[in-house]
Design brief:
The chain is an all-alpha fold. It folds into two domains: 6-200, no CATH class; 256-436. The chain is 87% helix and 0% strand. The chain has ten helices and no strands. The two termini are 84 Å apart. Residues 70-91 are annotated as: Disordered.
């Protein structure tokens, strides 16, 4: 029966792992029986269990205990066969051999035979020792056997635990690998479905766009056919409504002239703004250069002042040292005592050290002041240059945006003018057919068709186009 749930799938993978392990085991009958028992448990789970997670965990625990019981049963059999009584040892013949018994065996013997009185004479103890020497040998052999059995038991437990951990790890690795494969397959299916959806959407969008293009082309063809038909019908009516045509022509010429003036004014203003921006940028660059020169001159002045202050401090220090030296020499001449000379020398040394400390402190303070001033100037310069750069970039963005808007406005005006000219030409052609024999019916039909097209497409028209269409329809005579 095929797996029904995730738990059944996991049990199937566990079954495969146990079968693989069973094929690898050779010569260990106990482990083979344990693996067969575990396989029977898995088969029972696959045939009868509902496939819940709790049942799967219980199955794992049972399989683990089944494999673990293999090691413990072998150890128990080993323990049962290892505690057979050994051949009794030959009792000792002298007191020296009795004294050679270890302290541990004496303590064990004393614990098992409390009736021995260790206050007896040595001869009595030796006699009793010869009596119980066979028991000493048995106890030592049993102790060695117990130690060996415990060691084997521990080793078998470790081996069983390692095998159990290895089987569990292999099972988990197989589960993780299958889970990853399932996730990869699911992602692949999802990606394919998404690709199909995207391709379907693209095809639908392309079909809709093609339908729209066909409708637009058909509408243009129909409109052209209507205009051509009306022009063919009124080809002989050249003189009709000449004054009206002249007025419309003059109005179009005036509007064209006004549009050209607007374009020229926009172009002139753009040129002036570009010149002003260029002049402003040039002024800012010159101002930056001037500020850099001023900063350079100021730095040179500060450096010269620092050099002058250092020279003055050096001169003051030399003068003070000479003054102190002269005073010390004078005092040395006036004094004949060596102690006085030593004190004066020590005093001069302390004075020199104090002068050097004060001079070093003064130099440090002056250097810190100069460094702070230079850092402030550098920060001010950086902030000023950054501000100028930001202002220049913002100005350039504004100018570029205005130029782009003006260019778009000029294009829109030009397109509107062309549409207006086309509408005026159509209007003139319609007016020429007013008095024709069937002109009224055709004219009415054209107006109705135009209004119908306007009503159907007004929701999708731009505002400028909608306004032009509405103006055109309102201008048509009824």
């Amino acid at each position: 029966m095929p797996p029904k749930t995730h738990a059944h799938q996991a049990a199937s993978r566990l079954k495969v792992a146990l079968q693989t392990k069973l094929g690898q085991v050779k010569g260990d009958e106990t482990l083979v029986q344990s693996l067969y028992q575990a396989l029977r448990l898995v088969e029972t789970f696959l045939n009868k269990a509902e496939g819940t997670e709790g049942e799967l965990e219980a199955l794992k625990s049972q399989v683990t205990r089944c494999i673990a019981n293999k090691g413990s049963s072998r150890k128990a059999a080993s323990a049962r066969t290892s505690f057979r009584p050994a051949k009794a040892a030959t009792p000792p013949r002298s007191a020296e051999k009795v004294k050679a018994v270890s302290k541990t065996q004496d303590i064990m013997f004393a614990a098992q035979k409390p009736e021995i009185d260790f206050t007896l004479p040595l001869i009595a103890i030796e006699r009793k020792g010869r009596t119980h020497m066979n028991e000493y040998g048995k106890m030592a052999i049993l102790a060695d056997q117990r130690y060996e059995n415990e060691r084997l038991q521990k080793k078998n437990n470790q081996r069983a635990q390692q095998m159990m951990n290895k089987a569990e790890l292999e099972f988990q690795m197989q589960e993780n690998q299958l889970r990853r494969l399932e996730e990869i397959k699911a992602k692949d299916v999802e990606r394919k479905e998404m690709t199909i959806k995207v391709e379907t959407w693209e095809k639908e969008a392309e079909e809709q766009f093609n339908v729209h293009l066909q409708k637009v082309a058909k509408s243009k063809v129909e409109r052209k056919q209507q205009v051509d038909a009306k022009l063919a019908q009124v080809k002989a009516e050249h003189e009709y409504d000449r004054a009206e045509d002249q007025r419309i022509l003059q109005a179009a010429i005036v509007e064209t002239v006004e549009l050209e003036k607007v374009k020229a004014a926009i172009a002139e203003r753009n040129r002036n703004e570009l010149k002003a921006t260029h002049h402003e940028n040039l002024s800012k660059v010159q101002e930056k250069m001037r500020l850099k020169e001023q900063e350079k001159e100021h730095d040179i002045l500060i450096w010269k002042q620092g050099e002058q202050l250092a020279l003055q401090r050096e001169q003051q220090r030399v003068a003070a040292r000479e003054k102190i030296t002269a005073r010390a020499a004078k005092m040395a001449i006036m004094s004949d005592s060596d102690n006085v000379k030593a004190r004066e020398a020590e005093k001069r040394r302390k004075i020199d050290e104090r002068i050097e400390r004060e001079q070093a402190n003064f130099n440090r303070l002056e250097d810190e002041k100069v460094a702070i001033k230079q850092a402030k100037k550098k920060q001010m310069k950086v902030e000023m240059l950054t501000s100028l750069d930001v202002q220049l970039k913002e100005k350039e963005k504004v100018v570029h945006k205005e130029l782009q808007e003006k260019h778009e406005l000029a294009q829109t005006l030009e397109e509107n003018f062309r549409d207006y000219e086309q509408k005026e030409a159509d209007l003139k052609a319609l007016k020429k057919h007013r008095n024709y024999k069937h002109g009224s019916e055709v004219y009415t039909q054209i107006i109705d068709d135009a209004q119908k097209r306007y009503v159907e497409s007004q929701d999708h028209m731009p505002d400028v186009e909608k306004k032009l269409q509405r103006t055109f329809l309102e201008a048509l005579p009824t």
